[in-house]
Amino acid sequence: MDILSYDDVLKNTMGEKRFLLTGNGFSMSYNSERFSFTSLLDSAVSKGLISESSPVFSVFEEFATKDFEEVVKLLETSVRVVEQYNAIDEENKKQIVNDSKNLKKHLVEIITNNHPEKITEITEEEFSYSTKFISQYNKVYTLNYDLLLYWTTIKLMDYVAEETIDDVILNPTDGFHNDDINDNYVIFGNDNSSQEIYYLHGALHIFDKKSSIIKNTYSRTAIALKEQTLKNLDKDIYPIFVSEGTSEQKKTKIIHNAYLNHSYKSLGSIGSKNSSLIIFGTLLKTNDSHIRETIKKNKVKNIYFGIGSEDEMNQLKEFKEELENLDKPKNVYFYDYRTVNVWGK
């Protein structure tokens, strides 16, 4: 099978509705060292933040999870329960409470340690490429939870307003709004508000405030991401992101969150006979099989996978056959992801 270039993909899909699905390759192409980790827990252990001989690590193992939020809640709930039975001494209580607080700090440190601190760390030239990349799509879906796509959409809106970018298809809206200028956040509407950007696994700037899904914005606070996130964690307001576990565990978390479930269902509903889904920066491996399943359900006619080798093409062989053997078959193509210049590098 011929391997296309990205220019070929754009030419082949001219006049169609285009949908983009990005994975970690989007961030890796900005800086492979900064965005190379795959497991938050493994990163915490390798950095010496959590010892494999510690009680808190054994909690992760006992409950067969790598979800920091789940373990934090387990620790905090366990203290409250055993206190009612007078079954815990002050020393052990203090250790559990401290472990819970440290896990919150570790979560932020691991996620943001190598992450650019501010949007200004990325050059205008780099943004000129990344905004052009996403601007050619009707909708953009991402599996990433870092801020690179978010910052790119902010820049795209600026460039559109300044009329410094041409032929923009994407309307970079994300479904969040808030008319109360006194609030330091915006709220996910889930009300058919304009939305063309979807964070399928959540993101660092999106939080679960229990009664609502909120997005913190620098424009309303002038406070850096790391500080905002720490303040929210102190209030038990957690960033919404799905980074760990099996595909089934990820799907379970997705369907129990209004924002994630809305985004997930959107990916499964897009398309027509004149539409294409371009996949960049992910092979949708076993732990993302829930994404494969929802792609099979949508009405997109053509699927373009970005690959870098024949081995990667072979890894997608089974999924390709599944797509081509649906009741309404999809056409599957491969292109060389290295021909995509996302950040001008």
Strand content: 15-25%
**Computed CA radius of gyration, to the nearest angstrom:** 21 Å
How many DSSP helices?
Answer: 15
Low-pLDDT ranges = none
Secondary-structure-based class equals alpha/beta
Keywords:
345 residues, alpha/beta, 2 domains
If you had to describe this structure to a student in words, what would you say it looks like?
The chain has 345 residues and is of the alpha/beta class. The chain has two domains: 6-34 and 117-339, no CATH class; 40-112. The protein contains 15 helices and eleven strands. It has helices at 6-12, 24-28, 40-46, 55-62, 68-84, 90-112, 124-135, 148-162, 218-221, 225-234, 247-255, 258-267, 289-297, 310-315, 317-324; strands at residues 17-22, 139-142, 176-177, 185-188, 197-199, 202-208, 213-216, 238-241, 275-280, 302-307, 331-336. It has a six-stranded parallel sheet with strand order 5-2-1-9-10-11, with helices on both faces. A five-stranded antiparallel sheet has the order 3-4-7-6-8. Strand 6 (202-208) and strand 7 form a beta hairpin. The mean pLDDT is 90.
Summarize the model shown.
The chain is an alpha/beta fold and 345 residues long. Helices cover 43% and strands 15% of the residues. The protein has 2 domains: 6-34 and 117-339, no CATH class; 40-112.
